[in-house]
Structures are given as structure tokens and as C-alpha cells.
Design goal:
Number of domains: 1
Strand order of the largest sheet: 1-7-6-2-5-3-4
Radius of gyration: 16 Å
Number of strands: 7
Order of helices and strands: HEEHEHEHEHEEH
Number of helices: 6
Structural class: alpha/beta
């Protein structure tokens, strides 16, 4: 893990703790070794550093290709190990990059919805998550993010930011047929269950 990555993580950790009453649960569900996928809902631009901060391993994000067209920002995220993906397409290069990282024991972050939710509700996932997990042979950790879409809304200057890590979901050996278990559906249901459980009225 690079010094730049560690410095940014320390900075964001301080910001989240001081200003946003950062709450994290379920860290015990993170594998102690080997590659795995972090799959989270997506509410705002705060989400990537929010999820990466409590994870002890270097988190390599799969991010939309458009972000890599911004000169300075592109250099920063590439330096952090983020790689591009073309949304709404079968981006073979992005899929192969993710699989290679996972097989090498790295951690890959994916937002299955593909884009930020405008109403805060969980959206329909795009394809690719199950394929990557199955080909790499790694578990998926569902992650529920809360509060990042409430910043400066309804007079809420510093809302509470929350990250909840769910239990690992493993690819099924049954890749087809009537008994096939859809991994992506399980992940999205786990995220929804956490959002419902930790919801504050």
C-alpha cells in the first residue's frame, strides 16, 4: 500500500470522525487474507473514500470511464489504483483487470448500480458482479452506505456518515440451470436489508 494512499486515508478518517460522526459496523466480516470484492450502494462522491477508510487493505475501485477524462483528477485516481469501466457495456478489459487483481489477492470495489442514486433508494444493478466473483473465485462483501446524500440538505450541514459491512457471499458452484443462485441478487438484498435495519426515522 502506497504512502499517498495511506495519507489520504488518514486525512479522510479524521474528517469523517470529526465532522460526520463516522459509524462503521461489520468490519469483522472482512476476510483476513486473499482477494475479495466490496459491493456498495452509491449515493454521492463521498462514498469511495468513506468505504475505503476502514478497510485495512488497498481498495482498487472500478470507476466510470468519464472520470478518467478529467486531467488532474484522472492522474490522482489512477495513482490510487482505480481503473476505468465503460458503463452499460460488457467491458472485457475492466472485467479482466478486476479478475487479475482479485486473483493476486487484492481488494476491488464495485458500485453494482453503476451510478449514484438520485432518490437514495437502491437501484437495479448492472451486469458484471457475479461474473467477476465467479471467475476470480472470491467472496463479495455487501456494503450499505448511509448519510452521504444528506450533506447540506434540509439544514443538515453535517449528517452522520455510516458504513455497514455485511457477511460474505460466495459464488455458487452451480453456474446455470434451475438451481442457479444469483449472486448479484443476494448482494443487493443484503444491502437493502442493512439499509432497512439501520434506518433512522
Amino acid at each position: 500500500m502506497g504512502i499517498f494512499y495511506e495519507c489520504l486515508r488518514a486525512i479522510f478518517s479524521a474528517i469523517f470522525s470529526v465532522f460526520f460522526r463516522y459509524r462503521v459496523t461489520g468490519k469483522e466480516n472482512l476476510p483476513k487474507q486473499g482477494g475479495y470484492i466490496i459491493a456498495a450502494n452509491h449515493l454521492s462522491l463521498w462514498d469511495p473514500p468513506l468505504v475505503a477508510t476502514p478497510i485495512p487493505a488497498h481498495l482498487h475501485y472500478m470507476a466510470k470511464q468519464e472520470l478518467f477524462q478529467i486531467p488532474v483528477f484522472s492522474a490522482i485516481i489512477r495513482g490510487l489504483g482505480t481503473f476505468p469501466v465503460k458503463r452499460a457495456t460488457a467491458d472485457r478489459l475492466a472485467i479482466r483487470t478486476a479478475i487479475n487483481l482479485l486473483k493476486a489477492g487484492e481488494v476491488v470495489g464495485i458500485f453494482p448500480e453503476g451510478t449514484r442514486s438520485k432518490n437514495g433508494k437502491l437501484q437495479k444493478p448492472e451486469a458484471g458482479l457475479e461474473l467477476i466473483a465467479s471467475k476470480a473465485g472470491v467472496p463479495v462483501i455487501p456494503v450499505a452506505i448511509m448519510g452521504t446524500n444528506l450533506l447540506f440538505r434540509n439544514g443538515n450541514i453535517f449528517p452522520r456518515f455510516e458504513v455497514h459491512f455485511g457477511k460474505a457471499i460466495y459464488p455458487s458452484d452451480k453456474n446455470s440451470g434451475p438451481d442457479h443462485i444469483n449472486l448479484t441478487a443476494q448482494v443487493m438484498q443484503s444491502i437493502q436489508n442493512m439499509l432497512d435495519f439501520f434506518h433512522r426515522p
